Amino acid sequence: MSAKKSFVLRLNEDKMKALEKWAADEFRSTNGQLEWILTKALKDAKRLKKTDSSETDKD
């Protein structure tokens, strides 16, 4: 498993509420949902190497 790096993300309240609801609907944490969204976007854009995938690949 690769190391994880922390960073601060600022979202407006409406986006954060929508993200939290989406995560809850899919039985993920908010952080897990963000990782899933980013991983999917990177794969769709062909910007993620196969070896860079993580446990967030599970759909």
Structure, briefly:
The protein has 2 helices and no strands.
What report would you give on this structure?
Helix 1 packs across helix 2. This protein is an all-alpha fold and 59 residues long. It has helices at 13-25, 30-44. The chain starts with 12 loop residues before the first helix and ends in a 15-residue tail after the last helix. It has a domain at 12-36. The protein is globular, with a radius of gyration of 12 Å. The chain has two helices and no strands.
Which keywords apply here?
59 residues
Provide the low-confidence segments as ranges.
none
- Rg calculated over all Cα atoms: 12 Å
Mean pLDDT comes to: 88
Secondary structure: helix percent: 40-55%
Order of helices and strands: HH
Got a strand count?
0
What kind of oligomer do you see?
Answer: single chain
Secondary-structure-derived class:
mainly alpha
- Content of β-strand: under 5%
Span of the ends, CA to CA: 18 Å
The geometry reads as globular
Biggest sheet overview: none
Counted by DSSP, the helix tally is 2
Please write out the topology.
Elements: H1 13-25, H2 30-44
Helix pairs in contact: 1-2
